Amino acid sequence: MSTISEIPKEEYLKPCTAACAGCSSSLCLRYVLKAAGPDTVLVIPACCTSVIQGMYPNTAFNVPVYNIAFAAAAACASGMSRAFRSQGKKTNVIAYAGDGGTIDIGIQALSGAFERGTDFLYICYDNEAYGNTGMQRSGATPLGALTTTTPVGKTEFKKDLDAIVAAHNPPYMATASSAYPLDLYKKVKKALSIPGPKFIHIMAPCPPGWRYDSDRTIEIGKLAVKTGMWVLWEREYGKVTVSGPSKTAMKKPQPIDEYIKAQGRFKAATPAQIAELQQAVEQNIERIRKEEEGIC
């Protein structure tokens, strides 16, 4: 598959969601479900997606959904997967959670499910804050960003979720972005073809939380990749491959200033913090380049 026109036309996310204008999380989920198909169950903890689906008895989702407590998505998915497999069913079990329910509150359940070798796909759509409850800081919020609980800007770096997951040595893990749906679609298809625990970390820009106009969501996502603030790659059985958009961007990344200035959440970021972010981007790009080359 080489063009987005080849993606199946079937829709499993209906155009009646309760998402905010410009929401990239719902865009991500649209392509996740196109890749997964109808024989799929979503496990969703407290997060924006538990609101996006709509109010009972109505729903915008055309697949079964199991809403679960904030901390329990991976634990629920683990039991669900075991039950399906014991019945000889190959139903896709996908935990779809935000960064708060993954990197903070749900990290213990995620770790346990991966340690047990659960046959499921865990997807973290990362809008870098607790978006469902008003944009409080999370462990995924970047240095210098404003949130309702960091009114002068966050003073800590974003937690390295991918390194935590990689420590569990899953057979497949990847990063993706709502701005590159074909790349996301292909990675979900590949992940679901591999047995065992899989993980995909999606950057999901949020207009109200990141403070940019809702019609710029794709632009912001692409800027993240072009500046190296977000690198697209996949690790299959330990082998790292950088994805096309990032492979091109890594040759000559744009300055992160272009990404920072496009978002109101960074308006209080100091020159020193921006310099630290730029340095961290350069170090991360070099690390990923070495990993792909097999140097480290």
From TrEMBL:
Nucleus among keywords: no
Signal sequence, start to end: none
InterPro entries per the UniProt record, alphabetical: PorB-like, THDP-binding, TPP_enzyme_TPP-bd
Keyword Oxidoreductase: yes
Keywords: Oxidoreductase
Gene Ontology molecular function: oxidoreductase activity; thiamine pyrophosphate binding
One Gene Ontology term from the biological process aspect of the record: sulfur compound biosynthetic process
Annotated ranges, domain Thiamine pyrophosphate enzyme TPP-binding: 57-202
Tree of life domain: Archaea
Stored CDD domains: TPP_PFOR_porB_like (cd03376)
Assembly, per entry: Heterotetramer of one alpha, one beta, one delta and one gamma chain.
The name this protein goes by in its record: Thiamine pyrophosphate TPP-binding domain-containing protein
